[in-house]
Amino acid sequence: MKKSFSIDSIESAVFLAFVSGAILWGLAQFGTLYLALLFFSIPALLVGIRHPTIIAGVCFVGVLLDASAMTQHKIFGLPITLAKVFVLGGMVAWFCHSCFWRKPLVKWHPMINAMLLIIISGALSLMVAHFRPMGVVHLASIGMCIVLSVLVTTIIDGGDIKPLLRFMAFALFLLLMIVYFQGNMGTRDAHRVFMESMELEYGDYERISGTLADPNEYCAMLIVMVPLLFCAMMTDEHPLAKWIAGGLAMAFIIGIINTMSRAGMAMGLLCIPPIAWYFRRRMSPAVLAIGLAFAIALPVLSKFDTASERWSGLLGVEIGFTGTESLRERAALTRAGVATLKENWVWGVGAGNLLYRHGFVTADLDFKVVHNTYLQIAAEHGIPGFLAMLVIGWTLCRTLYQSLKYARTPYMRACAFGTAVGIPAWGGMAATLDLSTQSQAYFVFGVAMAIHRNIMQEHEKAKKEAEPTFQLVGS
């Protein structure tokens, strides 16, 4: 029976992930959500019993296609996206696997404890919340993201991470190519809304948002994922790995420029120098020549001119220019958020309630979120939320530092370095966006925790083997 579930190749993971995603997406278009879940759960359960890494791969596909379909559906009154559906299916599949092979259901990590503090602080803030249902939905979304991190960490722990990272790199590169040639795949064209507000015609100011609703969130997804996957592929011995790494690097630069995210372009530029320094000895003349040719062709391959105009607007270099409408709006939102924090600094205004409590409403009577994750959590959760963020920051820095310090192989060291570049850059993006429920980042958090667990397990094992042994000799 156990042999019948044997699936050991990455090709099987690619096939199953895309077929499952296609079936689920196609059935969902006809409104048959529960039938789609049934069709998805059957292969997930069967494959998950034998090869749990494929569960993580399937969840990754759902994360990539998060907002491309099914956002109109609800279960128990909560909005459901592909990422949530795939995580629910992955939880069932992992439960069956752990029961069948008698493995632990959960592999814990200090980062999980730190993230749970956000849930606890949010629950405390609901005592003073005016709109508690909003808070419950918001905390449920954060909780589902934490479950995703735990699921990924548990699945990867102690196993070979290479097949999963190869699949992730290939799937992300394929998605970037589809988005580049096809355009946006999200359920809401954020750039259309922006153009209408600026009275521009369609096509004059198109921003790429990929499978997500917001171009800035799509850019944040690339920033947190690509450094890890690029570093992994650069040190992978597979003959196609270097080609995928090169493709990811080029698609990463083009993708960030085409989102026209000002913060994304800044964080993306900060990611390039440390990675280039890390792999400086691998830069052959052929690689440098290809990079130079790509840099020359970049204005033709991307929306470079329009992105430069947005960047110039941020710096205010144009004569008589004082900032775009979006920048002035974000400044007003920040002031409103800070004022709300000062008035409710102890317990906050309640999880998910800042949107309706900061007092900022547009001319179209539209409520806007504060474009700052840290300010939002502090204003909504109060002192407990602020302390929780400090614990998360300290635990994350300690995790990344230990991974870099104790990694014993070039591959694991490169993976640790990729997370140490991408996650802080994503943290910089979080200061300009509400990324508290971005499932793509939580998936990478799960991978980073699994990398840390594997590295520390190898370190402890090597330390024990190096300890001198003493033998008592009787007289």
What are the SSEs and their pairings?
Elements: H1 10-28, H2 33-50, H3 53-64, E1 74-75, E2 78-79, H4 82-101, H5 110-125, H6 132-156, H7 162-182, H8 190-197, H9 215-234, H10 241-259, H11 262-278, H12 285-301, H13 304-315, H14 325-343, H15 373-406, H16 410-430, H17 439-466
Helix pairs in contact: 1-2, 1-3, 2-4, 3-4, 3-6, 3-7, 4-6, 5-6, 5-15, 6-17, 7-9, 7-10, 9-10, 9-11, 9-16, 11-16, 14-15, 15-16, 15-17, 16-17
Structural class call reads mainly alpha
- Beta-strand proportion: under 5%
Order of helices and strands: HHHEEHHHHHHHHHHHHHH
In total, how many beta strands?
2
Radius of gyration: 23 Å
Low-confidence stretches: 1-11, 188-205, 316-323
How many domains would you count in the coordinates? 2
In helices, the fraction of residues equals: 55-70%
| First-last Cα distance | 56 Å
**Major sheet:** 2 strands, antiparallel
Spatial strand arrangement across the major sheet = 1-2
Q: Which shape, going by the Cα principal axes?
A: globular
How many H/I helices? 17
Give the assembly state of these chains. single chain
- Mean pLDDT score: 78
